[in-house]
């Protein structure tokens, strides 16, 4: 059986899609949220308007969990460690598929690394790539990357998670897959700033292209294959998130560029991840000027015109 931990927009959308293959268990950390979904047949908090199929069952505990189960971890990045530590006993031998995108602020680690650290005997994997929860829930065609270092386990997960509308590609490069998803959110905030501040489509294209160069530079320095960054989990998700107002990271950037307030209850993974990436780049001695500028904009240490001056006045170089 598949268990999805995290009844946010993405976990709920995945549960809806996977319920076409068989029964799915959807876990939420808040018992009142479980009760509300049972009562209304919807996740009104995070994915309103989507009827939840009857073969999704809801729970706030994992009493009926079997070690044969596959678990999708669809919680926000900065909550992943706490969720795993709270369920270390039951999850210790399971196939654990991280579905979050980001870098932990306190350690600079990605989701697969955190799963490995806490559940040593589990099979860690990551599901990532260009996909909005609302699109998946509507059954629109979507392609994702499943990364798992254990090739046989990866093949089994690829089969189990494919649905008529969800096409899963596979790789064993977990480092590249997790970094692509983390880093593209930072660039999406930057793209939003560019558009919010009316700097133009050309400036956004420049940010996306040079941002992709930064993403690849860091990922390769940390052991990723450049081909992974060029795939769905990197380039694909960068394009989606830097160009669509469905993206919360992009919308957050738009509000920064317009000098407007942004609802703090909305999950914006790129905000904490930008700081974590900036610190890691400094520690590794990597040049990542766009990331530095975006980190400064988020913290309020830089204004848009200062960030632009900083980027445009850098010494000229070869591409
Ligand atoms: N929404 C999307 O379109 C989408 C698509 C792909 C990937 N993702 C990724 O999925 C992850 C989750 O995002 P989302 O969109 O589902 O978020 P969301 O904002 O819709 O929901 C977050 C959920 O996390 C829960 N939560 C908060 N604190 C928690 C805790 N301490 N323990 C357990 N659960 C807690 C909240 O109750 C909420 O249900 C993110 O890393 C995101 O990047 C999202
Ligand atoms: O809404 P965002 O910005 O978190 O983006 C959602 C997904 O990561 C897009 O692939």
Automatic annotation (TrEMBL):
GO CC annotation: cytosol
Q: Which residues bind sn-glycerol 3-phosphate?
A: 101, 129, 131, 184, 237, 247-249
The entry's family comment says: Belongs to the NAD-dependent glycerol-3-phosphate dehydrogenase family.
Where, per UniProt, does this protein localize? Cytoplasm
Q: Which reaction does it catalyse?
A: sn-glycerol 3-phosphate + NADP(+) = dihydroxyacetone phosphate + NADPH + H(+); sn-glycerol 3-phosphate + NAD(+) = dihydroxyacetone phosphate + NADH + H(+)
Give the coiled coil ranges.
none
Q: What is annotated as the active site?
A: 184
Entry EC no(s):
1.1.1.94
Q: Name one GO molecular function term.
A: glycerol-3-phosphate dehydrogenase [NAD(P)+] activity
Q: Which GO terms describe its biological process?
A: carbohydrate metabolic process; glycerol-3-phosphate biosynthetic process; glycerol-3-phosphate catabolic process; glycerophospholipid metabolic process; phospholipid biosynthetic process
Q: State the organism of origin.
A: Roseovarius bejariae
Give the residues the record marks as binding NADPH.
10, 29, 101, 133, 248, 266, 269
- Cite the annotated pathway: Membrane lipid metabolism; glycerophospholipid metabolism
Write down the top EC class of this protein: oxidoreductase
From the UniProt annotation, give the residues forming the signal peptide: none
- Give all residue intervals belonging to the Glycerol-3-phosphate dehydrogenase NAD-dependent C-terminal domain: 173-308
Tell me which domain of life the UniProt entry assigns to the organism this sequence originates from: Bacteria
Ligand binding (NAD(+)): 6-11, 133, 248
What protein does this entry describe? Glycerol-3-phosphate dehydrogenase [NAD(P)+]
């Amino acid at each position: 059986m598949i268990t999805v931990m995290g009844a946010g927009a993405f976990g709920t959308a995945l549960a809806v899609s996977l319920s076409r293959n068989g029964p799915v268990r959807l876990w939420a950390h808040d018992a009142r949220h479980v009760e509300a979904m049972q009562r209304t047949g919807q996740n009104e908090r995070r994915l309103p308007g989507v009827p939840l199929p009857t073969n999704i069952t809801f729970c706030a505990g994992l009493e009926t969990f079997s070690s044969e189960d596959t678990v999708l971890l669809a919680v926000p990045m900065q909550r992943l460690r706490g969720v795993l530590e709270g369920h270390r006993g039951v999850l210790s031998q399971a196939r654990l598929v991280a579905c979050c995108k980001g870098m932990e602020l306190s350690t600079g680690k990605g989701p697969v690394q955190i799963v490995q650290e806490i559940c040593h005997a589990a099979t860690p994997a990551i599901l990532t790539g260009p996909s909005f929860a609302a699109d998946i829930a509507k059954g629109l065609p979507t392609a994702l990357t499943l990364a798992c270092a254990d090739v046989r386990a990866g093949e089994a997960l690829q089969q189990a998670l494919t649905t008529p509308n969800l096409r899963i590609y596979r790789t064993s490069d977990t480092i590249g897959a997790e970094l692509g998803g983390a880093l593209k959110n930072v660039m999406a905030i930057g793209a939003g700033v560019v558009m919010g501040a009316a700097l133009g489509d050309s400036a956004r294209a420049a940010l996306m292209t040079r941002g992709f160069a930064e993403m690849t530079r860091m990922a390769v320095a940390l052991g990723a294959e450049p081909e992974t960054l060029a795939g769905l989990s990197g380039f694909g998700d960068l394009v989606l998130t830097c160009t669509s107002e469905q993206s919360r990271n992009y919308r957050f950037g738009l509000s920064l560029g317009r000098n407007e307030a942004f609802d703090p209850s909305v999950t914006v993974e790129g905000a904490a991840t930008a700081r974590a990436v900036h610190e890691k780049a400094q520690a590794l001695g990597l040049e990542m000027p766009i990331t530095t500028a975006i980190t400064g904009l988020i913290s309020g240490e830089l204004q848009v015109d200062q960030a632009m001056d900083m980027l445009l006045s850098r010494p000229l170089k070869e591409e």
